[in-house]
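Chapter review: from sequence to fold.
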Amino acid sequence: MKIPDSSSLTTLIVNYKTPDLCIGSLKSLHTNETCPRIIIIDNASGDDSINRINSAIMQNNWHKTSVFVSASNKGFSAGNNIGINASTSDYVLLLNSDTLVRAGAVELLVKTLDDSPTVGIASPRLEWPDGSPQESCFRFHRPVNELIRSAATGPITKLLKCYEVPLRVSPEVSHPEWTSFACVLIRRKVFEDIGLLDEEFFMYFEDVDFCKRARDAGWNIAHNPAAHVVHLRGGSSTVKSQAAKKKRLPGYFYESRTRYYYKHFGRFGLFRANIFWHLGWLVAMFRKALDRSYQPNICEKQWLDVWTNFLNPTAPYIHPDNYL
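The token string follows.
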């Protein structure tokens, strides 16, 4: 179904069991922005999300907000693709349910694209509720990054600094290799040129993959820090909280990691990424032996999980509902 939409902008929010966050994000949009069209895609939450979101829409008279219900949860990319296909606007804003849009942010992102025809993707400054910044601009993941990540040792990080993935938060407009899709404005022409988000990524690496495809096709990416969006990081995934606790990460993270390296660097690139990770792991273990207070930047069973799908990198992901 296509929504008649002659406006320049459609906002998409994928919800999976986060109705309170989603409603909060909707309130911030309607309070601070002019919203031509908003589409909520419920990724088969199976709870009371749909009823609660629809109730909020009716109570607040958010007439230009629609709810689509996916028959199954096929992940972040698939959920957004439903909304992209259902809209016809020139620009599409992908917005996480755990975000709060500050006044004028979307308008600034639209202006960023309007002012630069070669820019296909624009992102805002992501920040915590107190206004402190979050990392949201990055270099592409390359095999050598795995050594930096697993070693987490000053001399190695300094030596390979030009390959570090996170970029420093900049007060000026910048052009990163890729940007967080917690909030991102994308020109429809980009989708027409390179296709939709890759649905074989259940979650994670779909944003860096899309940005890499866009840049390979000649599109630039702009980050405008004058646009502010609060990212609460309270959404559907446990990856960041698990990583902070050094707990084992969900299988879909490693399935996506494998798919990304294979897709963009080939089988040998995937092999190099894993070997670099293990070299960094050896460095971390040696450092741990010398200093018992040192905490390696390594999650539980990561030494095994980095080899997920190595023999079949394009294998379909195992849905989280089917984990043993």
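Two observations follow directly from the output. The chain has two domains: 9-134+169-237, 240-322. The CA atoms of residues 31 and 239 lie 31 Å apart.
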